[in-house]
Write a structure and sequence with these properties.
With about 150 residues, the protein is an all-alpha fold. Helix content is about 60%, strand content about 0%. The protein is built from seven helices and no strands. Helix 4 packs across helix 5 and helix 5 crosses helix 6.
Length: about 150
């Protein structure tokens, strides 16, 4: 508790009870070791479109098939780039300085979608594995009884 108070005095942050109970706020204001920043509106748009495409394509084919992540990424890129409102508006003027193959906006959309799909596939894999494995008897009843040769 003293290190938090010392850091707060050093950073001239208010020493209210709410400030002590909110380490995320302290971390974002102080930018300590790993600064947490809220994503831009464009990044949130790409992630929400990636979730929409992931759910839609998951019905058609299982996420465990080959090229699923690439298919979702291409679907997201097509849907986001065909919208009327510009994505990453701070790069809009810069978009015309480069060739279509080297367009930074398309590259950003693909990278954000790819990272989101990678995280989403990891989460789906965990859910799928837990559905197949069923309840963990050994984990829940480890002190009482062992069933099913676990």
């Amino acid at each position: 508790m003293t290190t938090v108070t010392t850091r707060m005095q050093h950073l001239r942050l208010p020493q209210t009870k709410a400030a002590l109970l909110c380490p995320l706020r302290l971390q974002t204001q102080a930018a300590l070791l790993c600064p947490l920043r809220s994503p831009s509106l464009s990044t949130v748009t790409v992630c929400s479109e990636a979730e929409r495409c992931f759910r839609r394509l998951k019905v058609a084919q299982p996420p465990s098939c080959l090229k699923f992540a690439e298919t979702v990424m291409l679907c997201v890129t097509e849907n986001v780039m065909s919208r009327r409102q510009p994505i990453f508006p701070e790069l809009h003027d810069h978009m015309f300085d480069t060739t279509p193959e080297d367009n930074h906006i398309i590259h950003l959309v693909k990278v954000v979608a790819q990272e989101y799909v990678k995280i989403r596939l990891y989460h789906w894999g965990k859910q799928y594995t837990s559905e197949i494995a069923g309840a963990k008897v050994r984990k829940n009843l480890s002190k009482l009884i062992l069933f099913k040769h676990q």
